[in-house]
Design brief:
Radius of gyration: 21 Å
CATH class of the largest domain: Alpha Beta
Strand order of the largest sheet: 5-4-1-6-7
Distance between the termini: 29 Å
Helix content: 55-70%
CATH superfamily of the largest domain: HUPs
């Protein structure tokens, strides 16, 4: 059942891609042109133009993205807080370990690189903190190294290969991140013979709300440490960027659909309070 859910999520992701809809309306306009439906040609072209202008005008996506990123307040790291956590849980989604690593011998990091760099910072400053890196691949047909194995390679390259940690290389989405990571956390608590502690959760700010909802539903105690912010306290009123705007709207729709689908299927809690 989880595999069906995963495949459906990828299909929906393609359908909600904003720039795909611009192309769809342009294709319809060309079709109507061939059918000599001039009025429909102009209507569909106007819709495509209006949609493109809305997507590319940066304040439109910045406003929605800021709401999503501010849904979970920033956590201030203090010595007291770090003393109360069991370790660091790092969610995948930033590393390409597949065909690029296979062909080039190098691990590539995506735009969510702060998930990795913040993890490196914490592991260097707090060598006593264990970590779990959770992630196999979000692709329908993965190739090459899993994200977890690619992260292991990065750790070795950064001189952190001896840091105590666990590599969870089965999960394909946020739900599986939490389910498989919980097994590792419970196993550690049982081995230590002590009550389980919450873990610092590192993921992108736009993704944190959904991650916390899933963690709560699956009984995973975490403290949010959001990274990879895309918005500040201002709006780019004079900026138009169709590519960047499309990317931000894609993230927004992806999270909105993910939150709704996880709640409807019982994989995520409605609230994180």
């Amino acid at each position: 059942m989880d595999s069906i859910f995963f495949v459906l999520s990828k299909v929906v992701h393609i359908l909600i891609e904003p720039l795909n809809w611009v192309l769809i309306f342009i294709v319809f306009a060309l079709l109507f042109l061939l059918l000599r439906k001039d009025r429909l040609v102009w209507r569909t072209l106007c819709i495509a133009l209006g949609l493109g202008l809305f997507i590319g005008y940066m304040p439109s996506s910045q406003f929605a993205m800021r709401i999503l990123e501010d849904a979970v307040p920033q956590t201030r790291l203090t010595p007291d807080l770090l003393g109360q956590v069991g370790g660091v849980l790092i969610l995948g989604g930033a590393i390409e370990g597949g065909p690029i690593n296979r062909d080039r011998g190098e691990v590539s990091i995506y735009s969510s690189a702060e998930r990795v760099t913040k993890a490196f910072e914490l592991l260097r400053q707090h060598p006593e903190l264990p970590f779990i890196f959770s992630g196999y691949s979000g692709r329908l047909m993965p190739q090459g190294l899993s994200e977890a194995d690619a992260f292991k390679q990065l750790l070795q390259e950064q001189g952190l290969g001896d840091h105590p940690g666990f590599y969870e290389n089965q999960s394909r989405n946020t739900y599986e991140n939490m389910v498989f990571s919980k097994k590792i956390m419970d196993g550690l608590a049982e081995t230590e013979g002590a009550p389980a502690k919450p873990w610092l959760l590192i993921t992108s700010a736009r993704h944190m709300l959904r991650a916390l909802q899933v963690a709560k539903k699956q009984g995973v105690a975490v403290v949010p440490l959001a990274v990879d912010y895309q918005t500040g306290h201002y709006y780019s009123w004079h900026r138009f960027d169709l590519v960047e705007g499309g990317k931000q709207w894609n993230w927004i729709f992806h999270e909105a659909v993910g939150i709704a689908s996880y709640w409807l299927t019982g994989k995520g809690a409605f609230s994180v309070e």
